[in-house]
TrEMBL record:
A Pfam entry, by short name: NTP_transferase
Protein name stated in the entry: Glucose-1-phosphate cytidylyltransferase
Stretches assigned to the Nucleotidyl transferase domain: 9-206
Swiss-Prot/TrEMBL keywords: Nucleotidyltransferase, Transferase
Highest taxon, organism lineage: Bacteria
Keyword Endoplasmic reticulum annotated: no
Taxonomic classification: Bacteria, Pseudomonadati, Thermodesulfobacteriota, Desulfovibrionia, Desulfovibrionales
Organism: Oceanidesulfovibrio indonesiensis
Length: 261
């Protein structure tokens, strides 16, 4: 499939993922769903809709992530398989043509700092998509892209409804008299990732310690440069073993919502 638009994708894949038990031994992006790493699912989701260039921002467990791409027959690379290299580029022709840049962005670097470290690759782009390596959705990227193009601001965040993680207890004394699964309020939305960004947002990031979700997003909001794309479909983030099991069950169900390919 030819690219639907020329924007590259930045995937943040350097965090520790301390709430997921398996992440103690491996980086969370390599947590397997249906026998394939979570990162593979994110790339497949984006690539199946025409995205062809990816920058994976590495940190914790970077060698293991590099090893996955270098040892997987679905990808080829030029040059020696040097796990210590700051950047490795791999290529795929199946099921779609893509170029994947594996870039070291520091063990302790925060989310904004990881994006900033990719500035040399992004400054000359018209725009780029940024998302996380632990979230999946049945988002339609052409619609997100069209929305971003139409409003002309520097940034678009995809807003999603929060998952029903916690139950609400109705208590009398020390007795639970009713247990209700928590339903999000009608006006309750959260950051679902899948940002469309103009390269000028790089100037809003001070350095490695900057969390993208804090100072940069606050400044963009105050300056009227952040628009919101509402996604009403499926979205989920994998943080815990319970959520891993839920992802696995969806994949095996035969009607996996993020499997758009």
């Amino acid at each position: 499939m030819p690219p639907l638009f020329s924007a590259p994708a930045v995937i943040l894949a350097g965090g520790y993922g301390t709430r997921l038990d398996s992440s103690r031994d491996q980086p969370k992006p390599l947590t397997e769903i249906g026998g394939e790493p979570l990162l593979w699912h994110v790339i497949r989701l984006l690539g199946s809709q025409g995205m062809a260039e990816f920058y994976i921002a590495l940190g914790f467990g970077s060698a293991a992530i590099k090893r996955f791409f270098l040892e997987n027959d679905s990808f080829r690379h030029d040059g020696p398989a040097d796990l210590e290299a700051d950047e490795i580029t791999v290529f795929s022709t199946t099921p779609f043509e893509s170029t994947i840049h594996l870039v070291e962005t520091g063990m302790e670097t925060n989310t904004g700092g990881r994006i900033k470290r990719l500035a040399p690759f992004l400054r000359d782009k018209k725009q780029f998509l940024m998302t996380y390596a632990d979230s999946l959705a049945n988002i339609e990227l052409p619609n997100l892209h069209a929305f971003h193009e139409a409003h002309g601001k520097l940034a678009t965040v995809t807003a999603v409804r929060p998952p029903e993680r916690f139950g609400r207890l109705v208590i009398e004394g020390d007795t639970v008299v009713r247990f209700n699964e928590k339903k999000p309020a009608d006006n309750e939305w959260i950051n679902g990732g899948f940002f469309m960004l103009h390269p000028d947002v790089l100037e809003y990031i001070d350095g490695d310690s900057t969390a993208w979700e804090q100072e940069p997003v606050v400044r963009l909001t105050e300056e009227g440069q952040l628009k919101c794309y509402h996604h009403h479909g499926f979205w989920a983030c994998l943080d815990t073993q319970k959520e891993k099991n839920q992802f696995e069950a969806l994949w095996k169900s035969g009607s996996c919502p993020w499997k758009l390919w």
